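Hi L., both proteins are below.
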Amino acid sequence: MFSPLDQSILDHLRKAKTRHGHLGELFNFYEQLFHAQFTFKAQLRGEKGGYPREKEINLTDLAEGIPQITFDELNIEVASFVDLYKSIVELLNRDADHPHPAKREPQPDTIVRYAREIFDSRGPLVGSSQPAELDKTASGFVLAPYLQAACECIMPRITQSLWHRGYCPVCGGVPSFAALHGEFGTRTLFCSRCNGEWSFRRVGCPFCLESDQQTYYPSEEGRYRLYFCKACNRYLKSLDMRESPSEICLPVEVLATVSMDIAAQEKGYRVY
């Protein structure tokens, strides 16, 4: 049912639950969420809309810093979008002490508009967890499989040497994570929206491009780094792959390092 990539993410997530027992509730939620999203994404490879897989890479846009996809190119089929929205709202409310009124019958035009606003913002798909924002949170979660399916089609065909910007070449999203690779610590950024990964210079803030206002704090074992930019007040989590003893799955690492998000946000830094 799932692609090898999606199945690998689920397998890594289940393994992570045994290593991070204190995050069991978080991992249980995302296991259910990923299962729903990946099931839906498999349908996008069929008849239910999605990015046109035959579209060529726009090299002019790539050279000029314009991401490859637009919202309209996702070809959202509203009825399917609403069905997944309802499933995710149910998941969000399943263990809530006070279920949110997002459980009511949604207005299709409204939730698709939320998805468009989230896409255009270039920010993470999930923002505030306050009740007033749960409609948008659910819409963001529904948007994810559309963007991931597009990324899986586009990213392997992108010439990395043409893109060294701080936002995703596929969807324009900001990074949620970084990784250091190889002998010289080459850095890649990981998109907060479509799971795309692309190259970026080792030194400098990907959000504001400032090079002189960054500091970082390493974890005790040296695998993780938390970067702070004093110029734009943003932070970025990073993993040194050279210090990692086993195969790494970045979508799971984003979840497993939630304590780093909390620490950064308590200091007044933001991810976007």
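That was the first. Here is the second:
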Amino acid sequence: MKSTGKLTIFVITFLALATTAHAQSPREQLNQMVQQLQKNPGDNALREKIIKLGAKIRPAISAEAERRMVRGSVAFKGATSAAGYQDAAKEFEQATLAAPWYGDAYFNLGVAQDKAGNHEAALRSLKLAQMASPGSKEITNLIYEVEYRNEKARAPEAEAARQTALQKSKDEALLNSLNGTVFVCRYTSHLENVMDAEIHINGREATLLTRNIALTEATKRKGGYVGYVHEGTYKAALTGRIIVDGAVKLEIAPDGQTIRGNSCPNGSSVYQRR
């Protein structure tokens, strides 16, 4: 029993030593993660892991990262437009790939992106810089500034989206109120027949029909009759207040009293609600 116990202890000790021998060192882990990031530059979660590990082992900044920082600084100083600042940002981005734990590279990248008008990207970069240099008042204050600029830049977009949603809601309410209604455009054909072009609204579908109202004797002799001409019927889907079917485009007025378009040959192309 004792000899078995000694054997067990020996095996466990051997396995522990073998595991330790094959375990990656922090620096090896860092190098592996950097290689992964260079293949997937958009993986910010991986960048955060690298920054945290870099803070523990404090690796040296590579010559390539320093080179890119100098190039970016030159581009930034010479920039006079958004395109110029974008060129600087590209250099600083390469610096963050060469040394993804380098807080100054993220800071410079964020400043260049902000100058280029890419505020959201700047905020992502500055937050990585903040992670690499926790407690930096300069970075924190710059984040606040960029947040403000981003909000101001997005305000017109937000207002446009709100107006679009409001208009869509109004259009939906109008279409609901028009269900079952008919719009008429009366005209005289080239054969002197009086005819109605009609649009029937049913749910989200518009049916366009042609109806003979008064026919000349010549048309009657050819078999013409008063009533709907079925071969002139076609349907179109409603998209908001717009009716489109091939070359036919009609628009319902906001008050729901008329439809204007190019399918009625009376000159005015206006259908009146009946």
